[in-house]
Design brief:
It is a single chain. By secondary structure, this protein is of the alpha+beta class. The chain has helices spanning about 10-20, 90-95, 100-110, 120-135, 155-170, and strands spanning about 5-10, 25-30, 40-45, 50-55, 60-65, 65-75, 85-90, 145-150, 180-185, 190-195. The chain has 5 helices and 10 strands; from the N terminus they run βαββββββαααβαββ. Strand 5 and strand 6 (about 65-75) form a beta hairpin. Residues about 1-15 have low confidence and may be disordered.
C-alpha cells in the first residue's frame, strides 16, 4: 500500500525543485523503514479489502528533477501497490483538493510525522489513512466507518485514533514552515513527503 513520505532532501536546490508544479520524481528503489512492521487488513467501503498490508513508512531512493534523493515516505493512497517508476510531484493541497483534509493531515505530519519507533510510525500511517479516507464530519475511529482496519493489535489502532483526533483539534495551528508534497502516478502507489523550510 502506499506509504507516506517524510523527507530527507540533500539540499535546498532539490527541495526548491519539488515546489515547482510538475516536478519529476523517479523512484529507483523502495524499502520498508521498519522491516518488522505490523501488518493489517484494510477496508474501504463494503467492496475493498486487502490483507497483510505493512503498516510502516517507506524509503524511496531516486532522483528529483535530476538530483539524487532518499525520501522517508508514508502511503497516502490505499488502492495501489508500492512500485518504482516516474511520479509527478504536487502539493498536498492540490492532491487532495480539500482544505479541511489538507489542514488535518498537515497537523498530523507536523506533530508526529518524523521517523520514530516502529509503533509510532505505524500509528502515524494508520492515522493518515483515516484522515484521508473518512469524510470530514466523521470522528476518527479505525474500527468502523468507510475506512477501517482489522487483524492488527489494538494498541496501534488506539494510538492512531488519538493522533487523528489531535490532528483535527490542531488543524488551525499548523507550522508555517511545513511543506508537504505528494508523488503521484495513476498506476502506482502515491507517496507523501515533507520538509520544513
Amino acid at each position: 500500500m502506499k506509504k507516506f513520505i517524510g523527507l530527507a532532501l540533500a539540499g535546498a536546490a532539490m527541495f526548491a525543485a519539488a515546489q515547482g508544479a510538475n516536478a519529476a520524481l523517479i523512484i529507483n528503489s523502495i524499502s520498508l523503514v521498519n522491516s518488522h512492521a505490523p501488518t493489517a487488513t484494510i477496508h474501504a467501503g463494503s467492496h475493498y479489502s486487502v490483507r497483510n498490508v505493512a503498516v510502516t513508512p517507506q524509503t524511496l531512493n531516486g532522483t528529483l528533477d535530476g538530483n539524487a534523493v532518499s525520501l522517508f515516505a508514508y502511503c497516502i493512497d490505499i488502492y495501489q501497490f508500492s512500485q518504482p517508476g516516474t511520479f509527478q510531484v504536487v502539493s498536498l493541497a492540490d492532491y487532495l483538493n480539500d482544505a479541511t483534509k489538507t489542514a488535518r493531515i498537515s497537523a498530523l505530519i507536523g506533530a508526529a510525522g518524523a521517523h520514530s519507533t516502529t509503533s509510532q510510525d505505524a500509528a502515524v500511517q494508520l492515522a493518515l489513512w483515516e484522515l484521508k479516507n473518512e469524510s470530514d464530519s466523521t470522528t476518527p475511529d479505525l474500527s468502523r466507518g468507510y475506512f477501517d482496519v482489522s487483524r492488527i493489535n489494538s494498541s496501534y489502532v488506539n494510538a492512531a485514533n488519538g493522533l487523528a483526533n489531535d490532528a483535527i483539534a490542531n488543524a488551525s495551528n499548523i507550522d508555517p514552515t511545513l511543506q508537504i508534497f505528494v508523488a503521484t502516478n495513476d498506476r502506482k502507489q502515491d507517496f507523501l513527503f515533507f520538509s520544513h523550510t
